[in-house]
Design brief:
The chain is mainly beta and 154 residues long. 10% of the residues lie in helices and 40% in strands. The chain contains 1 helix and 16 strands. The protein has one helix at 135-150, and strands at residues 22-24, 29-31, 34-36, 40-42, 45-47, 50-52, 59-62, 67-69, 72-79, 82-84, 87-95, 100-102, 105-107, 109-112, 117-119, 122-124. The strands form 2 sheets. Strands 1, 3, 4, 6, 7, 9, 11, 13, 14 and 16 form a 10-stranded parallel sheet that branches.
């Protein structure tokens, strides 16, 4: 034990006990949208979106050799492989060391291990919405103020 830590200790969160009802094996390639009602582990290739059925709280895990070319919608998303698309998680996204993500990641909480690659935006569902007026509204307000100060009626 070095520095009082165990070698099997999880790097950035408590380990979750996951049970996968469906496994897409390394030799499998799937083309089309995948609608799931139970957690899925992907070690093969999926060309299309993966989406949980409404009201489900499933986990989608992309293994080291797994690839998803499409968007992912789930309660929890664990990525150790490659995703070429946007990821939307109601609860948590984990990007492990070997993760290679090309797309935006929307999450409630996130864990990122050193070495993970993300080419896209990280979008927190906890962030305050942008309430600033757009530039056209600001411009019109400025014009109205100048007219008012000059005594010009609209």
């Amino acid at each position: 034990m070095m520095f009082g830590k165990k070698n099997n200790e999880h790097k950035f969160s408590e380990p979750q006990i996951e049970s996968f009802g469906t496994i897409v094996g390394a030799a499998t390639e799937f083309h089309g949208a995948l609608m799931v009602s139970e957690s899925v582990r992907v070690d093969g290739k999926i060309f299309g979106n993966i989406e949980e059925r409404a009201g489900q709280r499933i986990t989608i895990a992309i293994g080291k050799g797994g690839e998803v070319h499409g968007d992912i919608y789930a309660f929890r998303v664990l990525i150790a492989g490659m995703v070429n698309g946007n990821t939307y998680a109601h609860e948590r996204v984990e990007l492990h060391t070997t993760a290679n993500v090309h797309g935006d990641v929307t999450y409630d909480t996130i864990g990122i291990e050193p070495g993970a690659t993300l080419n896209g935006q990280m979008i927190s569902k906890r962030a305050e919405p942008n309430t600033a007026p757009d530039s056209a509204t600001q411009l019109q307000d400025t014009i109205n103020k100048i007219k008012q100060d000059a005594g010009i009626s609209s």
